[in-house]
Amino acid sequence: MKRNIVIATVAAAALIGGGTATAIAVSGDEEAPAKKSSVQASNDDTGRDDADTDDADDNDADDRAEDKADAAEDKAAKDNGEDAEDRAENAGDAKAAQVTAADAIKAALKDTKGTAVSADLDDEGTKHVWDVDILTNGGAWHSVQIDPATGKVVGSHTDRDDDGDDAAETAQIRAALKGSSVTAAEAAEAGAAKGTVTSVDLDEESRDKAWEVDTTSANGTGSDWRVAPDSGKITADRSND
Predict the structure, then answer these.
(1) For the chain, what is the total number of helices (H) and then of strands (E)?
(2) Whether the predicted model's global pTM rises above the 0.90 cut
(3) Residue in 204, 184, 194 with CA at minimum distance from that of residue 225
(4) Model confidence pLDDT, tens digit, residues 138-180
(5) Which residue, 64, 104, 141, 163, shows the most beta carbons closer than 10 Å to its own?
(6) Percent helix, strand, coil in the chain (nearest 5)?
(7) In 54-106, at which residue ranges do the beta strands (DSSP E only) sit?
(8) ∠ CA 239-173-187 to the nearest 5 degrees?
């Protein structure tokens, strides 16, 4: 009577990874040919991979939607009424503003205590200067000039009420600032994400109070923005649309 000895070799790693395991049957009879059989294993990890892919697709869709919204805001903020001369002037302002609007405001407040209400990069003949308006706790108005190249105070004076309307304007500004948690410097920092800030000013007259921020790109393209005084959210200024 013939005995058959079957030696089966199955590699576990091959089965798990979707490989092929080979079993070889060896006969006790030298004349009987050896037989081979193959077993194919499948990979069952595809479900987890599909879930990861779905999450990645959702994140990509959210990123694309956010980028599209940002592009729309950038387009709406651009000042389309500028000509070549305006852009050249804007580019000069951007180049001169080595000290940012936010830093100029902070430097001015170190010189004069109070609340910064505006900061403008003015071109005074042959040089630029940051002109920061500060409302003191006592109700006086001060104008502090900051060198945009060094950040140093180059001038400071108290503004005179020549036209007699400072009291009414001050009351209106204080009312607008009452519900504001965003300072002029913080509004400037928000605008800096859009370009070089050349002006920050409190809009106390409109129904939706906001900080108005002007920026310019390296090529001189100007853009107008509004920063919410309660949240700091920046949006395109569409008041001139």
Answers:
(1) 6, 11
(2) no
(3) 194
(4) 889 999 999 999 999 999 999 876 666 778 889 999 999 987 8
(5) 104
(6) 35, 30, 35
(7) none
(8) 60
